[in-house]
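Workshop exercise sheet. Pairs work together: one partner reads the sequence aloud, the other fills in the structure field after running the prediction. Swap roles for the next sheet.
Pair: D.N. / O.F.
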Amino acid sequence: MLTAGTPLGVSGTTNMIKVVIIGDTLATGVGVGTDIVCGELSVCQSDEDALKSFKSESILVIPFTTNKIIDVVRSAKGIICEQGGEDSHAAIIGRALNIPVIVGAAGATKILKSGTAVTLDAKKGIVFNGDIYK
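Structure field:
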Protein backbone atom coordinates (compact mmCIF):
# COMPACT_ATOMS: atom_id res chain seq x y z
CA MET A 1 0.00 0.00 0.00
CA LEU A 2 1.34 3.44 -0.89
CA THR A 3 0.38 6.59 1.00
CA ALA A 4 0.94 10.27 0.28
CA GLY A 5 -0.41 13.61 1.27
CA THR A 6 -0.59 17.23 0.28
CA PRO A 7 0.86 19.60 1.05
CA LEU A 8 4.13 17.70 0.81
CA GLY A 9 6.37 17.57 3.85
CA VAL A 10 3.68 18.50 6.37
CA SER A 11 3.12 15.87 9.04
CA GLY A 12 -0.45 14.57 9.39
CA THR A 13 -1.63 15.40 5.87
CA THR A 14 -1.86 11.86 4.49
CA ASN A 15 -4.95 12.00 2.30
CA MET A 16 -4.19 9.53 -0.49
CA ILE A 17 -3.88 5.75 -0.41
CA LYS A 18 -3.17 3.51 -3.38
CA VAL A 19 -3.37 -0.26 -3.14
CA VAL A 20 -0.84 -1.93 -5.42
CA ILE A 21 -1.08 -5.65 -6.14
CA ILE A 22 2.36 -7.15 -6.44
CA GLY A 23 2.50 -10.58 -7.96
CA ASP A 24 3.00 -12.63 -11.02
CA THR A 25 0.77 -11.74 -13.95
CA LEU A 26 -0.05 -14.97 -15.78
CA ALA A 27 -2.43 -13.71 -18.48
CA THR A 28 -4.04 -10.50 -19.67
CA GLY A 29 -6.96 -9.61 -21.87
CA VAL A 30 -10.09 -7.47 -21.86
CA GLY A 31 -12.09 -7.75 -18.67
CA VAL A 32 -15.87 -8.08 -18.69
CA GLY A 33 -17.36 -7.09 -15.35
CA THR A 34 -15.79 -5.60 -12.27
CA ASP A 35 -15.52 -8.57 -9.91
CA ILE A 36 -12.37 -10.15 -8.55
CA VAL A 37 -12.49 -13.90 -7.91
CA CYS A 38 -9.94 -16.36 -6.61
CA GLY A 39 -9.92 -20.06 -7.35
CA GLU A 40 -8.29 -22.97 -9.08
CA LEU A 41 -8.06 -23.14 -12.84
CA SER A 42 -9.75 -25.80 -14.93
CA VAL A 43 -8.10 -25.65 -18.36
CA CYS A 44 -10.18 -27.19 -21.17
CA GLN A 45 -9.23 -27.40 -24.84
CA SER A 46 -12.77 -27.76 -26.24
CA ASP A 47 -16.47 -28.00 -25.40
CA GLU A 48 -16.17 -31.79 -25.11
CA ASP A 49 -13.19 -31.46 -22.77
CA ALA A 50 -15.12 -28.97 -20.61
CA LEU A 51 -18.13 -31.30 -20.39
CA LYS A 52 -15.86 -34.17 -19.27
CA SER A 53 -13.24 -32.57 -17.05
CA PHE A 54 -14.40 -29.17 -15.74
CA LYS A 55 -14.41 -28.95 -11.95
CA SER A 56 -17.39 -27.05 -10.58
CA GLU A 57 -16.60 -23.76 -8.77
CA SER A 58 -13.27 -23.38 -10.54
CA ILE A 59 -12.23 -20.82 -13.15
CA LEU A 60 -12.81 -22.07 -16.69
CA VAL A 61 -9.99 -21.52 -19.20
CA ILE A 62 -11.06 -22.29 -22.76
CA PRO A 63 -10.42 -21.15 -26.35
CA PHE A 64 -14.08 -20.10 -26.80
CA THR A 65 -17.49 -20.82 -25.29
CA THR A 66 -20.73 -22.01 -26.87
CA ASN A 67 -24.26 -22.77 -25.69
CA LYS A 68 -23.26 -26.44 -25.55
CA ILE A 69 -21.39 -25.81 -22.28
CA ILE A 70 -23.87 -23.41 -20.66
CA ASP A 71 -24.20 -25.67 -17.58
CA VAL A 72 -20.41 -25.70 -17.20
CA VAL A 73 -20.31 -21.90 -17.47
CA ARG A 74 -23.06 -21.54 -14.84
CA SER A 75 -20.97 -23.49 -12.33
CA ALA A 76 -17.76 -21.52 -13.02
CA LYS A 77 -16.38 -18.83 -10.70
CA GLY A 78 -14.99 -17.04 -13.73
CA ILE A 79 -13.99 -17.51 -17.36
CA ILE A 80 -10.70 -16.88 -19.14
CA CYS A 81 -11.26 -17.11 -22.89
CA GLU A 82 -8.77 -16.89 -25.74
CA GLN A 83 -11.38 -15.60 -28.19
CA GLY A 84 -11.54 -11.83 -28.03
CA GLY A 85 -14.31 -9.31 -28.31
CA GLU A 86 -16.72 -7.70 -25.91
CA ASP A 87 -19.49 -9.11 -28.12
CA SER A 88 -18.10 -12.66 -28.02
CA HIS A 89 -20.17 -15.51 -26.59
CA ALA A 90 -18.06 -15.64 -23.40
CA ALA A 91 -18.46 -11.90 -22.80
CA ILE A 92 -22.21 -11.95 -23.41
CA ILE A 93 -22.88 -15.01 -21.26
CA GLY A 94 -20.61 -13.67 -18.51
CA ARG A 95 -22.60 -10.44 -18.35
CA ALA A 96 -25.91 -12.33 -18.43
CA LEU A 97 -24.88 -14.67 -15.59
CA ASN A 98 -22.87 -12.07 -13.65
CA ILE A 99 -19.66 -14.09 -13.97
CA PRO A 100 -16.33 -12.24 -14.30
CA VAL A 101 -14.72 -12.90 -17.68
CA ILE A 102 -11.46 -12.09 -19.40
CA VAL A 103 -11.62 -12.35 -23.20
CA GLY A 104 -8.75 -12.12 -25.67
CA ALA A 105 -6.32 -13.92 -23.34
CA ALA A 106 -3.96 -15.09 -26.06
CA GLY A 107 -2.43 -18.51 -25.46
CA ALA A 108 -4.21 -18.97 -22.12
CA THR A 109 -4.92 -22.68 -22.64
CA LYS A 110 -1.21 -23.30 -23.25
CA ILE A 111 0.19 -20.97 -20.56
CA LEU A 112 -2.19 -21.74 -17.69
CA LYS A 113 -2.33 -25.11 -15.91
CA SER A 114 -5.30 -26.83 -14.26
CA GLY A 115 -5.19 -26.78 -10.47
CA THR A 116 -3.22 -23.52 -10.25
CA ALA A 117 -4.65 -21.07 -7.71
CA VAL A 118 -5.14 -17.64 -9.29
CA THR A 119 -6.87 -14.32 -8.86
CA LEU A 120 -8.97 -13.14 -11.82
CA ASP A 121 -9.45 -9.37 -11.85
CA ALA A 122 -12.12 -8.68 -14.47
CA LYS A 123 -11.97 -4.91 -14.02
CA LYS A 124 -8.28 -4.82 -14.99
CA GLY A 125 -8.33 -7.84 -17.32
CA ILE A 126 -5.49 -9.56 -15.45
CA VAL A 127 -4.93 -13.05 -14.04
CA PHE A 128 -2.49 -13.11 -11.11
CA ASN A 129 -0.67 -16.12 -9.71
CA GLY A 130 -2.05 -17.07 -6.29
CA ASP A 131 -4.92 -15.92 -4.10
CA ILE A 132 -4.37 -12.25 -3.24
CA TYR A 133 -6.72 -12.57 -0.28
CA LYS A 134 -4.61 -15.15 1.61
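Discussion prompt: The chain has a mean pLDDT of 90. What would you look at next?
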